[in-house]
What we know:
Helices cover 29% and strands 24% of the residues. By secondary structure, the chain is an alpha/beta fold.
Amino acid sequence: xxxxxxxxxxxxxxxxxxxxxxxxxxxxxxxxxxxxxxxxxxxxxxxxxxxxxxxxxxxxxxxxxxxxxxxxxxxxxxxxxxxxxxxxxxxxxxxxxxxxxxxxxxxxxxxxxxxxxxxxxxxxxxxxxxxxxxxxxxxxxxxxxxxxxxxxxxxxxxxxxxxxxxxxxxxxxxxxxxxxxxxxxxxxxxxxxxxxxxxxxxxxxxxxxxxxxxxxxxxxxxxxxxxxxxxxxxxxxxxxxxxxxxxxxxxxxxxxxxxxxxxxxxxxxxxxxxxxxxxxxxxxxxxxxxxxxxxxxxxxxxxxxxxxxxxxxxxxxxxxxxxxxxxxxxxxxxxxxxxxxxxxxxxxxxxxxxxxxxxxxxxxxxxxxxxxxxxxxxxxxxxxxxxxxxxxxxxxxxxxxxxxxxxxxxxxxxxxxxxxxxxxxxxxxxxxxxxxxxxxxxxxxxxxxxxxxxxxxxxxxxx
Length: 463
């Protein structure tokens, strides 16, 4: 066994570079007897031959089981403490008409952050009463549309939005339910750019300003105050941060009860998933039980009823369900620091289909998908094809040393913020999204062609 000195400390040299860690890959991904990876009964080679690469492959049964599992766990645990839970799928992670339809059919609400996401949810047939609208800078048009269609809740993110939502609701002769997003001051253990509850940031209002803000909300007959909202960050592996945020919110929640009902408390999302073998995600059943116990204890301490708890998972539902398949193009052995070799394996996608490694230094893992190999494992860096040195898909992992041009490779856990943050950098068309179930595949988001890209360029009509 040769452990590369260039490998990060968390990366273990694999005893088998063909193995698919269950914590990282979707539930129905296996290494078949033929040696290739099968996803929900369909081989990687067949998927690539039919749809091309790069391609996002969603294990449909996996994503739907995770959605139902989160809803069932939170229903059970908060029912145990005399309350109930509202589970909103955070559409920003990945939203399409088909995925929205799955979430609604499996008993979840949907959280949207823009007029476009709202349009997708409505096109999927979602009941507007089961939708919530986020955003730190909602346009007047977005607010008006949300009120007009009867959205279940709008999260007010700044003082100016109180008047904007109230005016829209009065104009449409509706009483609009709203939540107020606050900064709890709790800093989750996460990447700096993913932390969203710090005081010096664009989301929400300080806890010290909540009482005045809620008084202003309650002064409008066209608004109905549901409760406070908090989101402490993303990719969180423990519940301590949620418990501390809940404690701080409870103190204000209790004060607000003196002026009227506060039926809900929204603790946001950010539940972490495993992107590589070193990540240990908290089982959702444990997370739900811990949060229910914390909230029940706080309610007892403050002498109030346990409010309805709302949560907004996205990554933990769709992230592990999806694998991106690429085709290897070139391979370079690069000498680093004199004598150590890093093998650069370049593929036909990159930061246009997964910006997270470049944006957040996010770590992923990779496996050869079209075959197995007994070659010694070699440290690789999976690079994209874009004109950026930071265009890296996988910073470090081990692949069989005989990886070669033309091989298919699979990068798991790409369901969240892959397609959702995709771009046309270098004029690459965005990759298709394919759902696979019981050996059958279908496109749920069509990939873009060069004709699609050119069709938006007005120069075609002006030359």
